[in-house]
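Morning run. Coffee first, then this:
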Amino acid sequence: MPRPIQATIHTAALRHNLGVARQAAPDAQAWAVVKANAYGHGIERVFDGLRGADGFALLDLAEAERVRALGWRGPILLLEGAFEARDLELCSRLHLWHTVHCDEQIDMLALHKTHEPHRVFLKMNSGMNRLGFSPQRFRSAWTRLNALPQVDEISLMTHFSDADGPKGIAEQMARFEEATRDLPGERSVSNSAATLRHAQDAAVKADWIRPGIAVYGSAPDFPEHSAAHWGLRPAMSLNARIIAVQDLQAGDSVGYGSSFVADGPMRIGVVACGYADGYPRVCPTGTPVLVDGARGRTVGRVSMDMLTVDLSSFPQAGVGSTVTLWGQSAQGAVLGIDEVAQAAGTVGYELMCALAPRVPVVLED
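And here it is:
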């Protein structure tokens, strides 16, 4: 019998969450962002749930090949563009659109031999200070690209650093608007947070939105808002079973380092999930779990293959009971991945991406 742990990918939730993003920006086309193997969910597993998008956005050529192999014939955008000149050959063969964010990528295009000109997304660094041309250099980069026979349509793009917080997007949006004034081309500016929080702002004019974390059921602005606030559903659930029960007395400790000590009689359940499965080792005592659908807590330190939960409030629970580490329980209760991530001092993105290959994954509509 396989080890009793399983991740479930909820196809209907993916479809629903994409719909939430579309409703927030009904006049824009939507990229479904599937970089990092669809945020750990698996590109092949999420494809049916996200094929209603207008295009797929990702990072590398291998991921693009996988999407094309699934039968997708629509747009695919390389969010970081070509890393070396020979990448452009595959862009031509697979009909990929790609980002241009530096002079070196324009140089590559100038030397590229192709029969079909490329659709490119010229990226502005409006304040994130990662990729893109400064507002002062953006027009000259556009002029260089526009003069190349290797380039067809040029779209305009930027990325917000604070769409999820009080600083917002106004300052960066103003820089983008000023630098792109009167330039032709479709515009793509809104990630998940900007789509849900700012897409209705009059200043935001976007032809393409780029929902990423939102389509996987995590709130892009947690803890200010939960996924439920935005109407998002978990696209991934991680469930495991209790494989042993221990009865403790006052003074008994649990796990490595004896970091938890019982202050009275209690029962604990040993769960078949640990940091080798992708559950954060740093999750402290008190991290929320669902025991047979009811809210409980972890106790002690997370081990490689096991963690322990407090069964004091669950006299009916025992060996074989299901513990939901995040997502939806069989009883319908939901534990948001953002809550677990917050306990670990991180974000839901990291937990999704960290799901270990050894965890069996099933699809559910």
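The two ends are 25 Å apart (CA to CA). Good start to the day.
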